[in-house]
Amino acid sequence: MKEYLFRQSLKVEALFGDTCFCCGVQTQGKRRLHLHHLSYPNGHHTNTSATRNEALRTPERFRQVCYPCHSAITRLSTMTPETLERIELVVKETKEGKWLWRV
Ligand SMILES: [Zn+2]
Predict the structure, then answer these.
(1) Which residues surround ligand 1, an ion (CB under 5 A)?
(2) pTM for the complete prediction?
(3) Which domain holds residue 82?
(4) CB–CB of 36/67 below 8 Å?
(5) What average pLDDT values come out for the chain (103 residues) when binned by 10 residues?
């Protein structure tokens, strides 16, 4: 089984590469990337091996992403457009550093 999973992961890497679709981080052999479902058939979640097989059969239904990007996608996907707009605003304000405290 371990050998099967290893060969399966090599097929996934051959198809999707070793780079996060969102931020471009590369695995460099150290960690595995996640396969994010763009949609779930019948709304059912699947285990890692079944997900890999699905991705190998229908790669257009998946994005390969790193753990932090997968977490962000999963969280942001549940939010309303209004919440997303506000989050984007706060991120922009944070990057601009408008409200830094000065001593
Ligand atoms: Zn990423």
Answers:
(1) 20, 22-23, 25, 66, 69
(2) 0.80
(3) 2-96
(4) no
(5) 89 93 85 87 79 93 95 95 96 83 62
